[in-house]
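Loading example: each entry is read as two labelled lines plus one structure line.
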Amino acid sequence: MKAWRQPGFWLPVLFILVWGLYVLIVRQDSTREQAFTLLMFVGLASSLNILLGYTGYVSFGHIVFFGLGGYSGFYFLSAHNLPLMLSAILGGVVSAVLAGLIGLAVLRLRGAYFALATIGVNEAARAFVSNFEPFGGATGLFVNYSVYEGFGGPGPALWRTFIYLWITVLIIVVVSYAIKNSRFGLGLLAIREDEDAAMVMGVQAPRAKTVAFMFSAFFPGLIGTLYFFKNGNVEPGDAFSLHMSIEMLVMVMLGGMGTVFGPVIGAVAYQGLRGFLLTNPLFKNLHLAIAGVFLLLIVLFVPAGAIGWLRERSLKLRKVLE
Amino acid sequence: MQLLSSLIDGILIGFVYGVAAVGLTLIWGVMSVINLSHGPVMALGMFSTYLLFANLGVNPYLALIGVAVFGLVLGLVIYTVAVHRVISAPHLSSLLATFAVNMIIIGIGTAVFSTSPHNIDFSLGSISLGPIILPATRLLAAVAAILFTALLYIFLYFTRPGKAIRAVANNRTAAELMGIPSAQVLALSFGIGTALACVAGGLIATFFPFTILSGGPYELKSFVICVLGGLGNPLGALLGGLLLGGLEGLIPTVMPVSWVPVLEFGLFILVLLVKPSGLLGAKS
């Protein structure tokens, strides 16, 4: 397979591999925490990109899969004492199955109607979970301390969670690349350009869209479980935050929609900018407004995102960046 | 009796929801943009009413005229700066551009007003209609809402710029060929939509305490209402507002109030799936 030897593939993989190894070698709690948040957003943005970037469908409430998957994984973990990785995968599976069901219905809608429907799904899920007793209602669920014993205490447990997340994000990037370079991915890209024409050309659009939706929902569910396990609790406000959902879109947009490396760069850049604004005494009070101005400038003047912009500019870079 | 008074109370608030939703649906109908800055704009309407009332002692209902003018200017500015360049771009661009405006308003608003709740200390007592007792502010808010909707109707159907707006909503290319300056018309529609959001915010401020973040839930309600009535259909938006207000009044009489959003958004998704054009038909 020639596709696997392209720099477009190993550049993002190497980036994440080295980053994770660096954190493991430094072995400091603060470095790990920072890397955990960043890697989480890299993973979320990359999985959203599978739907948004490749098929062009704007899932505005994508965080719903992070929340629902996280809740289910957390439930398996704390109520049934399943191992962490198994719970996380089950959380992902729940997300993917729900995405399949939701997708069959809402993926018929196009453009703005689809975006509105996904907002509705997220708000409905948040309101429902707040009233759902097995998930702890409005107060949510807390981690059962006996879970930590299997890891040899909370400290090692957090390191283990980080390693799981790191591996998950690596897999997401590989999957994202594999989809883009497959026949299936080509169909998705055709849907993005013109859905009706793609169907005429023999792309099974309804099925392809649903499968893409399931892929982009599976990983957020998995990441959700790891994230809430790390936090020790899960509650509706954290799990279904519409703001975070839109931040995911911003990250994909910033790095470049439909590229493999773009969401990775976008997530790191956005979080970096936010961290800088939040800690800088000059901008602290206005951090949201400045981030807004920045976003507006990107949307108005560089709509292709960083990677897209570079690819447009130079033929050489187009061979290197995917 | 309890049921009836909850229903009437809900419908009165529904008129105010309706005004906000008419603003959102007007913008969608004319330029196919979902305005994600609608909520913060409503919050600005709340604060401008508050500032006029608390600092200058202006009667909140009189202040609405000033608030509407402020909203119009604000809308023109937002359109020119953020929306005009992405008007023909894919939906994601206009969604993110208006969301950027949302972040800017909330960011500046938080720095200026903080996120602690404010309150307009203004009461007119209550009015009793037979056995039903209603706060007078609710009744006046509904009257004001009807007034503003009537003004909008007269504007859209009986004035030249209003007719131009309807023409652009109908078919922008054809309208341009007929010599209608579409850029100005789009800006004006965005301004009117924003003005309506500000007015709705001002009315809400007369009965609930609010913060700079308070617009968010009303923005979501406006989405639900617009889809209920048919996106791009102002009359549908007003009726959708009444329907949602009525539901909000009735649901708490039969089940815990925390279930209201579950049913609202459930209904929203159901309408999108079964009849995406809404109850009164959307702009195609």
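Chain A touches chain B at residues 52, 56, 58, 60, 105-106, 108-109, 111-113, 115-117, 119-121, 123-124, 126-128, 130-131, 138, 246, 249-250, 253, 257, 285-293, 295-296, 299-300, 303 (CB under 8 Å).
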